[in-house]
Amino acid sequence: MNRKMLFLLALLIGGCASIPSDLQTRTEQTPLPFSATASIEPAGQTVRWGGEIAKVSNLQQGSLLEVVEFSLNSNGRPVKSDNSGGRFRILIPGFIDPAIYAPGRLVTALGNFSATEEDQVGEQAYVFPVLDSEHLHLWPEIKESSTQHCNCDPFFLHRSLLLRPIILVPDE
């Protein structure tokens, strides 16, 4: 009995959420938070930032993702909200397909804060922190269930409850 409990406990602990291995830092150094980029000069600091892809550009020196920053949960997945720290760019060596890395998809990148670039968002001037990516993690899309064909009867989903209760109301 104790071995079974120990095995189940090991499975439970091993199944807990953690950051994917490709996004884990190799050193004990804590990655620089995105909010610190406003006050720190880029010097190759290790960073782990994530957010929603806003734009994809394939250039001669590699691919460039423009990302709307969102805070990361304990898994390293961006949590979309109405608050963002701003935008940043991820420089990726090689080609990435804009059909897969499409605007609206969530990504998390591990790399180095290497530079800032002045550019525009629409017609507004903006300074983008640039992350030289070592690893890029594209998060799978979460499909929400359709409620168009909802049979909202609470007894619908369970076969043993298909015999619905009959409620008799006595006449007074």
Automatic annotation (TrEMBL):
Q: Which domain of life is it from?
A: Bacteria
A single Gene Ontology CC term = outer membrane
Q: Which InterPro entries match?
A: OMP_Slp (IPR004658)
Tell me the first and last residues of the signal peptide: none
According to its UniProt entry, this protein's organism is Nitrincola tibetensis
What is this protein called in UniProt?
Answer: Starvation-inducible protein
Stored Pfam families: Slp
